[in-house]
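Question:
Write out your own:
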Amino acid sequence: MVAVHTHLQQGQRWQQQVRGQPPLLVLTLGFTATALIPGISAAGATPSDRAYTALADAEFMVNGPAPQPQFPLPPLQAGASPAVISRAVIQAQGIPLWVINAGLRQPPPVDHLSLGTLPAQCLSTGQALPLEQVYRLWRVGLSWGERLATQTSGYLILAECVVGGTTTALALLRALGIDALDRVNSSHPVCNHAQKRQVVNQGLARAGWPLADLHPLAWVAAIGDPMQPVVAGMALAASRTKPVMLAGGTQMLAVHALMQKLAAIEGYGWQPERVVVGTTRWVAEDPTGDTVGLAQLTQSCLMATQLSFQASRFKALQSYEQGFVKEGVGAGACAIAASLYQGWGQAQILAAVEAVLAAKAEAEARESG
């Protein structure tokens, strides 16, 4: 159920180390006004929908299907929210969840850790975040990574929800010197590379790229989002004592690249062999991007769940097989964990996801009735 796409031996060793061990899922939420650009993301049908996606995902991850949620999962062009996948796994396998607010326009309606920081402006401004805030997020990430590693006997899954985050990821990768053009993914069935390139080029130019030689965190401040420095710090610190899975595709490959730059510049000791990136088959095999190539360029060990929705009884899940949605809120990593922790195969994961989606439909029917 888990394919290793790059750094095969590292991936196999990592899986052997964590097999049967209980993971701890940490979901870091952030917002960038990049998400409000029309058409930039499909994680919400309209810009106003996308403004609340992270809040809705967090509420669903914690509470599951419930009538009258404060923030309903946003309507999508097609498909079902990846929160359905992650929620199904953590509920059925008893995987604990921490929610962190790294920078939202308003707090999520569930128990969470707030870092007291601001959301990001659109990366096209070249001034996305205050530099002092980015340094604070990085230091807080280091502190919490060390602390969270003590909360599990197994390993950490570090997930995210930042709508527009594949575009900030592209910007960060380019700023760090990685040729990511036309390689990143998106929630669209066909990645909107031209639009992303235009937005990123505008932001980088305003920040002085390519002539400017900035600290990696200064690039995050210019064109990044609040999730990136927090998760980079958490993963670096946690890797000293525990295995870590960065949960996602393009966004976590960018975080991994940031980790390597920060560790080198700051002289921070970590354990690179303990850190892998886990995603879905729909991301790893996306024909409109080059996830595997990007993993190679960022020296990342990339693995992907082989979960398929081809035989699902729900059209919304079948849409994943047409390239819609693909990934989010740690869906791929949670499916990987389901296989490694309790040995679940295709049938068990699909049944659990369908049960959550059916319960969601039932709750919505009760609400409307």
